Please model this.
Amino acid sequence: MKKILVALTLLSALAFANPFGAGNKSVGITLGSGSVSYSSGTFFGSYTENYYILGVSADYYVFENLALGLGYRGWFGGSPTIHQATVPVTYYIPTNSKFRPYLGAFYRYTYINDDRFDNYSSTGGRAGLAILFQNGYVGLGWVQEYYLDSDSRSDTTSGYPEVVIGFSF
Model:
């Protein structure tokens, strides 16, 4: 009897729901840090500001494995404060396991709370692997972002790793 209970406990621990089902919703939080280099002009040189990043996102699965979302990230602790609104679309490739590769695209608008700097837009792509658990997932991936207003920026693209934790309901 003990062996049966242990086996059932182990099997239930391995079981996971499909958080990517049509009509499901998920919410996520962003916690992180980053830095931005600013140029103050020829006479003043440049400087780097360090930030902590806080954000929230929500996704709705319009079809099985296809999510449309809305997200906000704020960059705080440095000057100027930066606010970002993002509209992502993500597709989770169906597999018969708790590991799901994903591909996505997004549009992002960045508002900088200082008149000395221009606001800008960007688009991008992301790819990674989501690992499912009971009511959500953890995703590990790579993001490549392309800046649309490249005439006002010295960089036209940037890439960075992402870690995503999502809770589905």
Observations:
- The CA atoms of residues 74 and 83 lie 5 Å apart.
- Residues 4-15 have pLDDT under 50 and may be disordered.
- The radius of gyration is 20 Å.
- Strands lie at 25-39, 46-63, 66-76, 82-92, 99-112, 120-133, 136-147, 157-168.
